[in-house]
Amino acid sequence: MSDPLRVGFIGLGDQGAPMAAAIAAKFDLHVWARRAVSFEALGNARHVREKDPVELAANVDLLCLCLRGDSDLHDLLTDRSLLQALGKGATIVNHATGDPAETETFERITEELGVHFLDAPVSGGRPGAEARSLTCFVGGRAEALDASRPVIECHSTHIFSMGPVGSGQMAKLCNNALTVSNLRNIVEVFAMAEKLGVSLEGLRDAFEHSSGGSFILQALGTKVTAGNAAHIAELNRTDVDEFAAAMRRKGVDPTAVLEWAIKGPDGLEALVQRLQ
Question: Boundaries of each 6-phosphogluconate dehydrogenase NADP-binding domain copy (predicted)?
Answer without folding.
Answer: 6-163
